[in-house]
Amino acid sequence: MKRLHDYTVVLRPDDNGTFVAYVPAIPGCHAWGRTPEEAQAEIVNVFEMIKEEYREEGRPLPQDVDLEAVHACQS
Q1: What pairing do the DSSP bridges indicate for beta strands 19-22 and 10-13?
Q2: Residue 39 burial (10 A CB sphere; 0-12, 13-18, 19+)
Q3: Residue 50 lies in a domain
């Protein structure tokens, strides 16, 4: 079974001063924290819960997705 380090994890600051971590390939796999470290620790817990749900349902976890970070161009 796949592990979290097999996936791309996005960590970004949120508008309210917290941090959000999420796995784009897995719907619902997101967490937040007051610090980047808290968000990263929480995403591990969320991933483990989702992985268990997939296992119980007999479904494989989805493949990772390719991401590209870009900045919007101003006109």
Answers
A1: antiparallel
A2: buried
A3: yes
The answer to whether 9 touches 43, Cβ cutoff 8 Å, is yes
> Residue 72: which pLDDT band, with cuts at 50, 70 and 90?
confident
Triad 22, 28, 32: Cα angle to 5°: 45
pTM, whole model, 2 decimals? Answer: 0.88
How many whole angstroms separate alpha carbon 59 and alpha carbon 66?
21
12-28: pLDDT as tens digits: 999 999 999 999 999 99
How far does CA 51 lie from the centroid of its chain? Answer: 12
| Residue-range definition of the domain harbouring residue 11 | 4-57
Amino acid identity of 32? W
Evaluate whether 12 touches 2 at the Cβ level (below 8 Å): no
